[in-house]
Amino acid sequence: MDWVKGTFGTSIGKKQLMAVTGLGFIGFLTGHLLGNLTIYLGPESFNSYAEHLHALGPLVNMAEVGLLLFATVHISTGLLLFYQNYKARPVKYVGKKWAGGRTIFSATMPYTGVLILVFLIIHLKTFHFVDHDNQTISQIASNVFSSVGYVVFYTLSMVVVAFHVKHGFWSAFQTFGANHVKYMPAIFVLSAICAVVAGIGFGFLPVVSRLVL
Amino acid sequence: MQLDSKAPGGPIETKWDRHRQDLKLVNPANKRKFDIIVVGSGLAGASAAASLAELGYNVKCFCIQDSPRRAHSIAAQGGINAAKNYPNDGDSVFRLFYDTVKGGDFRAREANVYRLAMCSNSIIDQCAAQGVPFAREYGGGLANRSFGGAQVSRTFYARGQTGQQLLLGAYSALMRQVSVGKVEMLPRREMLDLVLVNGKSRGIIVRNLITGEMERHAAHAVVLCTGGYGNAYYLSTNAMACNVTAAWRCHKRGALFANPCFTQIHPTCIPVHGTYQSKLTLMSESLRNDGRVWVPKKADDRRKPDQIPESERDYYLERKYPSFGNLVPRDVASRNAKAMCDEGKGVGSTQLAVYLDFAEAIKRDGEDVIRKKYGNLFAMYEKITAENPYKTPMMIYPAIHYAMGGLWVDYNLMSNLEGLFVLGEANFSDHGANRLGASALMQGLADGYFVIPYTMGGYLGGAGLDSVDTNHPAFAEVENECKERVNKLLSIKGSRTVDDIHRELGLCMWDNCGMARNDAGLTKALNTIPKLRDEFWQNITVPGDQGDFNQSLEKAGRVADFLEFSELLAKDALDRRESCGGHFNEAFQTEENEALRDDENCCYAAAWEFTGVGKEPVLHKEPLTFENVHLTQRSYK
Amino acid sequence: MTKKINLTLKVWRQKGAAHKGALETYSAQQISTDMSFLEMLDLVNEDLTLSGKEPIAFDHDCREGICGMCGAMVNGRAHGPEKGTTLCQLHMRHFSDGDTIMIEPWRAMAFKVVKDLVVDRSAFDKIIAAGGYVSVNTGGAPDANNIPVYAEDAELAMDAAQCIGCGACVASCPNASAMLFTSAKVSQLALLPQGKVEADKRVLSMLRCMDELGFGNCSNERECEAECPKEINITNIARMNRGFLKAALFSRHK
């Protein structure tokens, strides 16, 4: 099994693990956002979407296990990369300026990543690991979003997600080597679109919930 | 001492083949019993070290920089010649041989030059196989361009960075041998002396430039690939670390130094801007295809170029050489630029420059065409001078560029000291009194890839060498001498810096032993240099310690050797009673101001034997005979 | 126009790898704006020498931007603020009278400080020794025109091959990664038919060597291509990533 270590243990291998799991999450976000948009149609639609989803039973469980696996890989690899990168320059520069390659999105990847993890834990605690037998999903949402503080936290978290996606999306393509004169400009644009859609799509959900649910 | 070139007789076309047939071989199993030291990792050194290691010898390769990839071969721009005749324009091995001998003003050894031309084609094959990204035609074949001194297109190139790509090719071959353990690479080491045991070269003493430690290294043979001595002039196109030390120490141990006065001046360099200028930057000669060289007619005319009307400009090359105009050879263009400046017509703040004007070419062909041809050179010029050559004329001035002279070697590239081989610019063998463009790369690689692998076997196979290790008393003795010298340099604690003395030496050499020489100037240099040397040994200050990374100390050692070597250079120039190629003595010129050779009396290589610092060296002449070319006088009118 | 300017320098001084370093302040007086940055340092060193102090150690050689020997962080930027320029080709006209200039060595775990601004870049040689070559012995190469190379591939290979191995990519990378350097060589050889034979083995072995030497991981921050004096771009890194994926998953090499 030396080659497995020699593949996924290398710097590129680890980055490609990050890329594949990251793109997986973008896929998940897309589905999650499409489902949640039913909120705009009112509580009935939203509840019915949730019921249909949960009717899939084992498939949902499998997806959950898959997501957990992806999350474990993405987070642990990310932390390892962060640690290694930190260690790669033991003496820091007294004064360092960036030359224009680095963006606020790329520079904050590890931090936005950690913030997303914090959000995720709270999000799962408030929406997933709660009593689903005696209340509908729209009731849960309505309750949670009744707190202004939580709304602010949620909305800010979605800005953080947008930041993470903005760099993560094109970066994943680059990491797989899909940098092509013809397509790279489109990937950059798509990267920005994804970030904005995720940010706005999820970011406005609490406000909409307060208005609709 | 009788100089034996060991060049075989008979027809020139088969000399090398017959010679190789006669050389002794070392059988493959025995090669690993031989250790070889290669000093220097430029084109010659890297290619030699890699090729010898591939054969099975144990190689130690030393370089002064932090990595073998940085040797100054890397800075060669133009290209590399080969007689491939891909463009079908009539090239051949013989034509390349002939052009090289003629370009060298008939002061090179015929047999060596012919072999060089023969090897040229294999070099291109070898480099292409290594993945050197040569320029290509759309069909996938190699592209060629033309270069000075030839009427055929035989120059292969990789943009303006041919030297870099060839060196990186040789470096990759070298690193491959490092990875299989056949080459031990020792960077940041400076060779300080040669160790002879029973008259044979058996090792070297190097200083570890990081720790300052003296190290002894023993071997069965030493291959010196340490480049040229252009930095004797302080300002040159050479890299800062280029030096004569290794070659000079071998000379002091008995190796003959040949033709030191053959130095090449490159006409199109960016002029000196001030006292603290550290080096000169060369721009490709191709600029003279479209640029017109001129100075104001009036001396001390400080007007801006655009304020000087046509009628007050002197396009002196076009005036004096109507048929070749701005495209006269390097030496002629250089000497004329100097003559103009000597008359006070030089331009720029230092008045040591002439204009190279593209206004007419831009008017004729449009800026786009000029940009396509010379865009990168114009950009480089603008980066250094902050002037836009599309709008205002460039300023150029000649600079020392290449050393044709070097340690004397025979046909096997072995010096008169047994077991000491000298390759590349460090030897004197192939370019005579002047080197053609795109031929330096060819020589370095021919020596390293295709000559030394054979001649080394020939030597080792028949030398019957005893085993010698670094405990031999000869090593201790030489190491002590090196240590004493270093300590001496550190103990002077005077009031002048090494650079200061070096600058003074350079100025003296440039003024008296530069482009155009005369007996009075050379005599003056011969008076000045020993005084400067005394001043150096009494009044320099070298900060820091021996046991440390100490760049001041490194520099001091090199300048100390330049101060001894320069005297030999001037002596050789004064001794040669003719002008030829890069050596131009004003007393010997044609009516057209061309170098006037004296083939009757001066058709020899001057090989000097060291007798002591400040003592008269002994001249040994290797007569040069030409059986295959006819000696002619150059004319560019 | 040539001017004379006065500057304050804050220069990193460090006796050796085992010693601690610190910034020291020097003044550089009457600096001609025509000087290169290294000539300015030469001048400061002359003054230090004459006043009995040890001059600032810095690496340099060709001083025409091709050997890759020089390099330092100038005001937080590798090789200073000019694009596509090595330190030796940076001229003082880009600074103003009264400026304070901070000069630090390249900093990375894999580049230990030798002294002051001089660092040990032998890691780059190790990466090349791990596979940055075509395994061809001297002699016996076929005629050069027997290996046709499409002109544009040769141009792309040349773009990558221009790397001078100065280390600015590592120095400027937030993670001190050597991906641009490594990928430039991998790319050059992957683009040429001569290099394709060993492409799989090469990319695996050079990458693993790079990792072992303690460089960081690439996180596509693009600082390397922004600072590279030869303006080598990150499509080379993509090409290496692609080559790695192919070699790791589909080749026989372990």
Summed up:
Chain A has 213 residues and is mainly α. Helix content of chain A is 77%, strand content 0%. Chain A has helices spanning 2-8, 11-36, 43-55, 58-87, 104-107, 109-128, 137-144, 148-175, 184-203, 205-212.
Question: What is the number of helical segments of chain B per DSSP (H or I, 4+ residues)?
Answer: 17
CATH class of the largest domain in chain B: Alpha Beta
Structural class of chain B: alpha+beta
- Average pLDDT for all residues of chain C: 96
CATH superfamily (homologous) name of the largest domain in chain C: Alpha-helical ferredoxin
Low-confidence spans of chain B: pLDDT under 50, at least 5 residues? Answer: none
Task: Describe the protein's architecture and organization.
- The complex is a heterotrimer of chains A (213), B (637) and C (254).
- Chain A is mostly helical and 213 residues long.
- Chain A has one domain (2-90, 103-212): Fumarate reductase/succinate dehydrogenase, transmembrane subunit (3 helical TM bundles of succinate and fumarate reductases, Up-down Bundle).
- Helices cover 77% and strands 0% of the residues of chain A.
- Chain A is built from ten helices and no strands.
- In chain A, helix 2 crosses helix 4 (58-87) and helix 6 (109-128) crosses helix 8 (148-175).
- Chain B has three domains: 12-25 and 35-262 and 404-463, FAD/NAD(P)-binding domain (3-Layer(bba) Sandwich), CATH 3.50.50; 267-399, Flavocytochrome C3, Chain A, domain 1; 478-603, Up-down Bundle (Methane Monooxygenase Hydroxylase, Chain G, domain 1).
- In chain B, the strands form five sheets. A five-stranded parallel β-sheet of chain B has the order 6-2-1-10-18. A five-stranded antiparallel β-sheet of chain B has the order 12-16-15-13-14.
- Chain C has a five-stranded mixed β-sheet with strand order 2-1-5-3-4. Chain C has a two-stranded antiparallel ribbon with strand order 6-7.
- The mean pLDDT of chain C is 96.
